[in-house]
């Protein structure tokens, strides 16, 4: 099938009717929480705005995960039912981790609001210093660090989705979300470029590269194992997920699993859901995808592979290693132009130890040594505008954008947001 015919088929084919699913939606201040059953991101926005008395145009409304990840139409259909989402109106600020930490301090120390106010001022004025101090005073009780399951360490899972049953699964997905965020930001920057808007040949080349990035990331499990201690090179704790008794390097929420279980789910749906009718859109929608949804997903994945001109490669299991040790401790790798962290042991963290450290870990960054927005993407756009892009260049771009070849984990103090020149 030619590229032109492929695009025409995508535009003219009937859109799949997605299954009704339930979500929890809150405002940016977390003061109200409502339930919404919907089939699409647009429907979720419309119903949530009606229930929260929001009158803004839907195009001005954004939906975020609790960790601050922006949800778009494509990512929406990968979310689990009953996920809690944040609705943001124009000019509203999503609560940062520093804000949440302060609110926690204020509630715990309700009789000492003056101290809480000083803490708020401290957090607002010097975020980096705040992180350094909190890292010192955090609870260092290691007695439950090794525990993995919710029932063994329930306080660690405070506020997390109920379908998250192990620490490793949650950390795996959080890393996937960060990598997926780089993909979305890259696509957005490409589509805002003059080359995309005004040069048809360059746009055609960029579309093929975007298609490749998506498929290769699915093959690489969105590098979720970077934060997953069960993939530690030490291999001491044997916390790897098992599916049907077979060791697997990812979890049920990982995109690669969808390709493996599609046929099984289709068979289940044929037996159990054939006569189900969901007329009431306020029911609990925690169900499997429909047969049509799964068939469409499988067909689109096959179409993507057929239209891709770049080779998709698989990594050896020995290459799929986490950035932490077997207990879950991470070390800062230092400022981008150095080979070590000058703060030494002061810049260590174990998000598997406590809920407080898990929250604090969100302030650590995967920093691009060769910058994504200032260097990598502009160079890609320039090459696409000038000539066909060879496979070696595309592979190098992918590695620099998503892998530890160019990414290093850093404490917020060591995250240099200035130009890396």
Number of helices: 14
**What's the number of domains?**
2
Low-confidence stretches: 108-115, 236-249, 258-302
The H/E string reads: HEEHEHEHHHHHHEEHHEEHEHHE
Distance between the termini: 45 Å
Number of strands: 10
- Radius of gyration, in angstroms, nearest whole number: 23 Å
Mean pLDDT across all residues, rounded? 77
Proportion of β residues? Answer: 5-15%
GO molecular function, one term: hydrolase activity
GO biological process, one term: apoptotic DNA fragmentation
InterPro entries: CIDE-N_dom (IPR003508), DFF40 (IPR039729), DFF40_C (IPR015311), His-Me_finger_sf (IPR044925)
Keywords: Apoptosis
Summarize the structure in words:
The chain has 421 residues and is an alpha+beta fold. 43% of the residues lie in helices and 9% in strands. The protein has 14 helices and ten strands. The chain has helices spanning 3-12, 41-51, 73-76, 97-108, 113-125, 127-137, 167-191, 194-198, 200-219, 255-272, 291-307, 355-361, 372-386, 391-402; strands at 21-27, 33-38, 62-65, 84-88, 242-243, 246-247, 330-331, 348-349, 365-368, 407-410. It has a four-stranded mixed sheet, covered by helices on one side. Strands 5-6 form a two-stranded antiparallel ribbon. Helix 9 crosses helix 11 (291-307) and helix 9 (200-219) crosses helix 13. The longest helix has 25 residues, at 167-191. The model is unreliable at 108-115, 236-249 and 258-302 (pLDDT under 50).
